[in-house]
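How it folds
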Amino acid sequence: MSSNQISFPANIDQPVYLVTPGAAGTHALVKHFGLRIKGGVPWWNVHARAPGLPPAGSRILYVYGNPYDAVVSYFNRGFMSNPTHCVNMQGDSDSWMKAHNSTLDGYLDYGLDVFALEDHLTRWASYKRRNYNIAFLKYEHIMDHVADIERWTGMSMDGFEFIPRRSDWRTLPPRTSEKLHVVYGKAMHAYESMPTFIVNPMVQCA
């Protein structure tokens, strides 16, 4: 979807916040924009699963990525040896305690997405009492939407360093890939059902 097909709210002076489930260029985006992209409250949690939290009239930039690759990234970066990320994104911390310190295969054998990636996306995308504006952007297509991001945030992307993902689920053994599909297939379906960039969608949860 190109920028000339997107309806942008007129008030560019609104505070802008970043939201992401993680493993989606978070550090690069925070380095460039800050936790609060522009103005806003100081206590913002970029990983929050709380679509009722943003102040009325603000804007959200929700950045997310391929959930299969995100899970591989979580393991490569030690998210299963430390509960901080699961807690920050308000996942299933009790189940995390049972599944932590396992291998990727062991975790997938546990059979539960403790990070609840599908829920994180669809909860923000389907929230019916939204009194703010929100744009959803796929991490893999950030550089395809530089102009859209600049229009949405009111800030320049000059100097932003896009870091290609190093975690690739397609390099996994076939049996591990099959397990990944069983546990995260619904999350992948939700991801694939969204355009690369969209403003104010109202997604019906399955």
